[in-house]
Design a protein that fits this description.
mainly alpha, 71% helix
């Protein structure tokens, strides 16, 4: 009988849930740091784009496209968060990570954020329609 066979196990659900929780904590810390005057303007612009995209119900690459549909979810968003975290001064980031861990996101903040993102997408849709309408007439 062979004893050198390695068993490859799927990552357990708890580790995926923990990774998702960490991702949400990092995004909330970015949101909190965004409002701090010690954060450079270019980092604030990038953080705003990443947090908005993270919260947005609309993907650049729709999820129904095989393989590519999840590229933004598993590559673009984590890479954007990583870059955003590198742009924020370390002391400021640690302060807001602690705050993000100790103070959970309120339901009100979730609704306000979702409303703002939806309004932005509606504005983009309106401007796109106006542009197309102007070009054809």
């Amino acid at each position: 009988m062979r004893t050198d066979v390695k068993v490859i196990s799927m990552p357990n659900l708890k580790s995926w849930k923990e990774k998702a929780r960490q991702l949400h904590t990092e995004v909330y810390a970015l949101y909190l740091a965004f409002r701090d005057p010690r954060v450079p303007w270019y980092a604030k612009v990038f953080v705003a784009m990443i947090v908005a995209y993270f919260l947005s119900p609309v993907d650049l690459i729709p999820d129904f496209i095989p393989v590519l549909g999840y590229v933004d979810d598993f590559v673009i968003i984590p890479a954007g968060i990583y870059l955003a975290l590198k742009m924020i001064p370390r002391g400021v980031l640690e302060e807001y990570r602690q705050k993000a861990r100790s103070e959970p996101v309120t339901t009100r903040l979730k609704w306000v954020s979702a409303t703002i993102i939806i309004l932005i997408w509606l504005l983009v849709l309106y401007l796109l329609i106006e542009f197309i309408w102007g070009v054809t007439h």
